[in-house]
Amino acid sequence: MKLRMIAAFAAVCSVATVTPALASPALASPAREATSAREATAVTAGKPVSYPFSSSATRIVLERTGGFAGTSVSYVVDRSTAGGREPLRLAGSNDFRRLRGSYLPANACCDRYAYRVTVTWRGGQRKTVSTVQGTAAPSILWTVIQRTQQVGAQS
């Protein structure tokens, strides 16, 4: 099954071949399968080309405003932040990259927090996603918000 998925990926990307190491039966363990996708290497025109499945996030800035008291606070996570590895990994995922720019409720009333998450990836690319507390949004967004509040440097 895994070999078929890799072959399909190679066909869609017009890749000539995929490295034999990924087809090895020795990679059948679940732990090994989890890492092998990140290590996928294709060969095109005789040269190996890596296809990263996520890019590294280098910085997260979370701005939280509102609430009953109308407060404003920012949290920052970067590579030097203790415990920052998980939120940076999540923010670097393809799931996070696919998020829309905003997830806002039809009725913005009440004393809810508003969140604005700005992620910077290696290479300087940035994405900002806004939402409001209690709004239906993908779980990856709420997890990044929660983890950033837990470990981020508050300002």
Question: Can you offer a commentary on this structure?
Answer:
By secondary structure, this protein is an alpha+beta fold. The chain folds into 2 domains: 2-50, no CATH class; 57-154, no CATH class. It has 5 helices and 9 strands. The strands form 2 sheets. A 6-stranded mixed β-sheet has the order 6-8-7-4-5-9, covered by helices on one side. Strands 1-2-3 form a 3-stranded antiparallel β-sheet, covered by helices on one side. Strand 4 (57-66) and strand 5 form a beta hairpin. It is globular, with a radius of gyration of 19 Å. Keywords: Signal. This is Lipoprotein. Residues 1-23 form the signal peptide. It comes from Paractinoplanes ferrugineus.
Q: What does the average pLDDT come to? A: 74
Count of strand segments = 9
Tally of discrete structural domains: 2
Beta fraction: 25-35%
- Gross morphology is globular
Say what oligomer this is: single chain
Strand arrangement within the widest β-sheet reads 6-8-7-4-5-9
Helix content range of the residues, please? Answer: 25-40%
Radius of gyration: 19 Å
Question: How many strands, what sense, and barrel or not for the largest sheet?
Answer: 6 strands, mixed
Low-confidence stretches: 1-54
- Total helices: the number is 5
